[in-house]
Amino acid sequence: MKKFSTGILLSLLLFVSCVSDDDFSIPDTVDPDPEAGVHVQDFMWKAMNFWYFWQADVENLSDTKFPDTEEGSRAYTEFLASESDPGKFFDNQLLYSEDRFSFYSDDYVTLTQSLSGISKSNGLIFGLVRIKNSSDIFGYVQYIVPGSDASEKDIERGDIFIGVDGTSLTDTNYVSLLFGDSDSYTLNMADIIDGQLVANDKEVSLVKEVGLQENPILLDEIIEIGGAKVGYLVYTGFTDEFDEELNKVFGRFKSGGVTDLVLDLRYNPGGSVNTAILLSSMIYGTNTKEVFLKARYNDKYQKILEDNDTDLRRFFADKTGDGTQINTLNLSKVYILTTSGTASASELVINGLTPYIDVVQIGETTRGKNEFSTTMVDDRDNNYLYSPDRTGKINDNNKWAIQPLLGRNENADGFSDFTSGLVPDIEMEEDLTNLGILGDLNEPLLARALDEITGNSAKRQFTTAMPARTLTTSKMFAPLKDNMYVKDLPVVW
């Protein structure tokens, strides 16, 4: 079941092309029996019928399935009532079999609040790994959010935990133990000894806080090594509220004479594509005539846009959303660190930059998330598109929202086929026995990137004693998850 009542959003900002009020609106379709109590399902079907990327591939969403007749209305009502739970209706009746990312929420208010990365969290960011030939699972700390409850406790990157509140983690209980309704839990810690997990007596109690906002700029510094000045940025989420701060980081890199850049996206599941464009412009350049991406929608919406000569391309930027001149390094090569948790807008940066500069990807194959989505609510007059300026227009009797995939982004070369992930140029897994300290010159993945930059002829050989092959991560249960969303669609109305 793809329900995330706390909200899961990642931001992709697109431009709006305005033609006239009558040029674009979702066509009238058959209505259900108003007494049937299926208004939520009705909203879901109508929004998906028009906007969904795979609308033509889902029989239940066919334009001809329910004719606008009395018989069609009866059949439509029966179809909507086939699932009394709107969430099950969405999952079971409307989704394409290959869709891994569309989801719903029963509370659009909480969902949309996550646009700014605000959530209830204890600040512990971790991965979960299955023990070989076992149903048991253990966790390892990837990093701690500064200013969080976890930042004040005796726990740090690389620490291992095997239980919660005295119960061992398994593949059947980890969701309820770590991501359930409780705002607090106690982790039972362990050590790795000779490749084995050994419980110790250490316990760490953590409390989730309401309104914790994570600054995605976890670490930025200039490393001077081998005659090079290397900018190192650990960036954990494309949250557009921090675009100005991100630009200031590149201002410091530029004034500091940075000649090379290591962009650490290992723990970045994605976010605002507008921010992805800005970050890519800070790396490569600000020529606003060079194409960064082209969006592709379903055939129905694509035709409307093309008939109205709507340009679906997005270009590199020379200013932030606030109008600040972008600080660009004008690089011809960038080194990007990735894991299987690197997704969405992170992958878009890699793919978008590839036609222009040499992108050296170091680490693991990425997640393979190349679609974008938007938030839809029961606001028929706005074609079901959520707008913060129209919350008073949303049906008072329907708080549900859906976040369907709308399309895919191609780079300037027309490439978008990376559903299996982007494969690294230099494969290297994180080692649970030597996770290292972020920013330390001996942290294995950073060290490998620095060796490439300096041309170290005697490159260190990094062996991985215990690979961190994650089953999932805490970010997959956080509000932002790994979805890109459209804040402002290119519409003609």
Q: Proportion of β residues?
A: 15-25%
Shape label: globular
CATH architecture of the largest domain: Alpha-Beta Complex
CATH-defined topology of the largest domain: 2-enoyl-CoA Hydratase, Chain A, domain 1
- Give the tally of β-strands: 23
What do we call the CATH homologous superfamily of the largest domain?
A: 2-enoyl-CoA Hydratase, Chain A, domain 1
Structure explained in plain terms:
Residues 1-21 form the signal peptide. Residues 108-189 form the PDZ domain. This is Peptidase family S41. Pfam families: Pept_S41_N (PF18294), Peptidase_S41 (PF03572). GO terms for molecular function: endopeptidase activity; serine-type peptidase activity. It is a single chain. This protein has 493 residues and is of the alpha/beta class. The protein has 3 domains: 11-115 and 373-406, no CATH class; 120-213, Roll (Pdz3 Domain); 217-371 and 408-461, 2-enoyl-CoA Hydratase, Chain A, domain 1. Helices cover 20% and strands 25% of the residues. The protein is built from 10 helices and 23 strands. It has helices at residues 39-51, 70-80, 86-94, 108-113, 174-179, 243-255, 273-283, 299-307, 345-353, 444-454; strands spanning 11-12, 103-105, 118-121, 124-130, 137-144, 160-164, 167-168, 184-193, 196-207, 209-213, 217-225, 228-235, 260-264, 291-296, 313-315, 333-338, 358-363, 371-374, 401-403, 405-410, 426-427, 472-473, 484-486. The strands form 5 sheets. Strands 4, 5, 6, 7, 8, 9 and 22 form a 7-stranded antiparallel sheet that branches. Strands 1-23-18-20-14-15 form a 6-stranded mixed sheet. A 6-stranded mixed sheet has the order 11-12-13-16-17-21, with helices on both faces. A hairpin with a 6-residue loop joins β4 (124-130) and β5 (137-144). α1 runs parallel beside α3, α6 packs parallel to α7 and α7 runs parallel beside α9. It is globular and about 75 Å long. Mean pLDDT is 90; it is low at 1-23.
